[in-house]
TrEMBL record:
Origin superkingdom: Eukaryota
GO annotation (BP), single: snRNA 3'-end processing
Protein name: Integrator complex subunit 2 (Trinotate prediction)
InterPro entries, per database record: INTS2 (IPR029321)
Cellular component aspect of the GO annotation: integrator complex
Amino acid sequence: IRILLIDHSVPYIIKRSFLRIWKKVSVSCPEKCYILTAHYLTSQEDASYFNITTLSKKLMTEPHKLLESSHIIFQNSILVEIFLYTFRYFICLSRVETNKIYKSLRAKTEKTDFNEVNTLYDTLNSTQDLFIILLTILAATQANEVLCERYQSSIPSQAVLCIIGCFIHEFFVANPTLLKLVHYHGYENRSITWIVKYVPSMHIFNGYFPTLMQDVQGEDSLIFLCLTYAHLSTAYPIEQILENLSLFIATLKKLGRSHKKHILLGVLEALSIFSGSFSFSPYLSTAMLSYIKAKTLDTAFNLEDK
């Protein structure tokens, strides 16, 4: 593991063979395998009973600590797989610990207060998952930029982003509300394109877009949501793109009416992304979107039936 962390010239066939061996070990003795893997991924010290025990206790309550050096790990597709298997293990352990606390609270709580305890339990799990997803996105974006610069190609980073995208997808499928929370808090705009491409469940965002726009806070959040929606829309057939564009315009109009806000110029970038989808007539579509943009900026104009 340490060699793979520092040496980028190890042949892929050797790395792949190591991954197969590691998986066999993780099945035969999972507890030892995962804690030792976590140790060697995060520390340069030799493994001892004390530091292994300390790390295990820390990760059982705060599994996100494993992400502290992940921007380096995410530069190697084999290490990414090993890391995410290990990460899942400690996330599961953390949930077991949280569940023990939950059951203890339930036993000591009056029946009339069960709803409050349940809400607290759900909030705790959602907050931890939200934190994990946002940190994972940040680390993956940093690693992606390093890989593209090192190899002058996006091909090495695609293998890594595909694995990480599937990891994030698991969270969104298990709890779709997490997708709404992640995009309410937001992440860097430079991460949007790879998340849309490699996270299959991002289509759920379509249903949350109008609601998120109603709760938008500031120009940066507005631009982030618009760009995410525009990039996501381009993955669909032309009929769906037109439907999404209609919803996009309607949402902006509603936002202008209800909050008396000006629709800021950052939205134009999202409109240009939509425009690029109409390859059959870029000049016509650009002119059409310019017309729509002009009318959208004027909140007094009625865009119905146009």
